[in-house]
Input
Amino acid sequence: MADKIDTRAVGLDVGLAFIRWLTGAENLHYGLWTGLEVTAGNLRTAQDAYTVKLFGYLPEGPLRILDIGGGAGETAKKLLALGHKVEIVVPSAFLAARCRENAPGAVVHECTFEDFAGAGPFDLCLFSESFQYIPFAESLPKCARLLAPGGQVLIADCFRSAAYRSRSAHGPQPGGGHPLAAFRAALAESDFTVAAEEEITDAVAPSIDLEQGLFNVIGHGLTRVSDAIHESKPAAHWALSKLVALFLSRKRRRNLMQRLTETTRSAEVFRKFNHYLILRLVQKG
Output
């Protein structure tokens, strides 16, 4: 039997190729849009502004940094250029390969943070849009074990606001992350306290409008092609519809068409359901 197609890896490959073509880099994070027109041409500038903002929270170096969920290695590459030593934890074989290509000076661990067996010690644990994927029981407690005395944690990520209902609730709720109230409670029980905090929700939210605009362009093209095939070759259109149904359930097809043709995902909705925070945590005592 043929191996199952890794659709996530294929999607990442296509997505990174597009981002690289558009911006010249493989950044997977939000952009910081303050003072910028929200256009595809400004995406690289917005993402670079985000990195500058993030790096402004780094302690004085050089540092031994554990980049947790390091994406395609673009952030690690910049950290290495600043003279820091970097190890990356990333669970995807595809992304691990991209990290080794983009940040050849970094040590790459292909595993989840929960399964990471490195001993450190590190001066900084960095979560750039990865903290939301790690259970509270594993995140800060494991950081405390990995950090050297005086080590710190830097988090830049979405947290769900009190307005968020549930994943199954009706209507789009773009964004993600742990509920902010739950995070505050877990932090209070941890070995860390907040040394610096900034909310940048308004500045990153336009990334959702840009993403939705891109999907709408793709959706417009697919709709036009589908209509033309249906009009000129109805039998072929029927066969293609049946083929698509073999790979995508009715729910997935409905969700995909919503993403491609509607405009319900927006910066305004993102602001309602999320807080995007940058937090620098230090050890208590």
About this structure: The longest helix spans residues 206-232. The first strand starts at residue 64 and ends at 68. Strands lie at 64-68, 85-90, 107-110, 122-128, 147-160, 192-199, 274-283.
